[in-house]
Amino acid sequence: MSSASAARCHEASELESTPPMQSVIVDSEQPEVISLFCGAGGLDWGFHQEGFHIPLAIDISAAAVRTHKANFPQTHSVAGDLIELQPEGVHELVSERVGSGARIGLIGGPPCQGFSRANTTSQADDPRNQLPRLYLDIVKRLQKDYTVEFVVLENVLGIRDKKHAETYKALVDGLIGLGFDVTEKELCALNFGVPQNRRRVILSAMRMGQGYLPVKPLEKNGLKTVREAISHLAEPVFFNRTLTPSDIPVHPNHWTMQPKSARFLNPESNYPEGRSFKRLAWDKASPTVAFGNREIHVHPDGKRRLSIFEAMILQGFPTSFVLKGNLSEQVEQVSNAVPPPLAQSVAAAVKLSLNPVNRGSD
Question: What is the mean pLDDT of residues 87-94?
């Protein structure tokens, strides 16, 4: 994307308004949740819906934190680099929001680009692959002043590939060494009401010796195809400098850039499908919503790319959710998010595991 295009996209972020997040009653009996690598808040939304209070969320992306602030107004959302903060800096931020000795849980997935199979040049020594180790160090530091009841991490399947096996084993063994029982699950978003074939690894670590159940997210019915998800939507607006909020139908993120490729003029012609030009099929689930700046999937009619809002729906975001930032920043946020319905099933399973009434049952 050119700097001029980026500037125009940034102007579009000023068009956004934010519908209020659905009110949820906080369950004061549950541990406080600290969200690391929070992104837009897909995983946070699931825990929020299950009544967990999230006093603090941290992400390196300023745009993602703007999104988080807008959608989770009761959370202190901080733009910060965990590598710079280090465990002591994270502890300081937590201590400003949560009293010493409290029960807490940590959620969030370290950035996955270093482990992604789509990144064909990924290496075991990618600096981003050190973030799981930092995550463990943060947990260890917080354990000195808090009772860490659980840790939930999400990442791409590639983290378990042979070239990253040492990093993954160190992560699992590290959680066990810190006193957690670890459950490993490979979950597909399509089995949790999200019309997308997105498979991810979920690690759920529960404090040992408490009689907590293994974390077993329950699958649920929901949307299965692109048609069910977005066929009813009005056409999005193509971005231009004169747009006002009233010009954007349906939702503040229902806009896309003007199609320029000649392939959009003749959508029924045979064209090679690559990562940057992948057309969706109406009666199938979407492939993984994971885009680069120029890789947003092509709408099933072949005449344009998806709007940001359409991508959000295919990712399982509620219509009350609004992304902030320019086009590239919004694309990154929707791509990196944990699908909210899947996140809610994970959160519900964690809550069931924690519930003393259910200890000892299966």
Answer: 98
Per-residue pLDDT reduced to its tens digit, 221-259: 999 999 999 999 999 999 888 877 788 889 999 999 899
Using alpha carbons only, give the angle 302, 288, 285 rounded to the nearest 5 degrees: 65
DSSP string, 1-65: --HHHHHHHHHHHTT---PPPPP----TTSPEEEEES-TTSHHHHHHHHTT----EEEES-HHHH
Q: What is the DSSP letter of 192?
A: B
Q: Using the predicted structure, report yes or no on whether residue 59 has a pLDDT greater than 70.
A: yes
Residue 131 covered by a domain:
yes
Distance of alpha carbon 41 from the chain centroid: 6
**C-alpha distances in angstroms, 264 versus 31, 171, 195, 292, 346?**
51, 45, 24, 19, 39
Q: How far apart are CA 287 and CA 266, in angstroms?
A: 23
9 part of a folded domain: no
Question: Both tokens of residue 29?
Answer: 């009996």
Residue 362 has pLDDT above 80, yes or no: no
Q: Establish if 318 belongs to a structural domain.
A: no
Domain encompassing residue 47? 20-219+340-358
Nearest in space to 157 (alpha carbons), one of 318, 316, 290:
290
- Look-up: residue for tokens 């077993």? 216
Helix H segments across the chain? 3-13, 42-49, 62-71, 82-97, 131-143, 165-177, 226-230, 308-314, 327-336, 340-354
- CA–CA dist 301, 299 (Å, integer): 5
Across-strand partners of 103? 147
Q: Is residue 340 pLDDT above 90, yes or no?
A: yes
Kindly report the CATH number assigned to the domain that includes residue 125.
3.40.50.150
Count of the separate structural domains present in the chain = 1
**pTM value?**
0.87
> Closest by alpha carbon to 133, among 77, 181, 87, 171?
171
Domain assignment of residue 307, yes or no: no
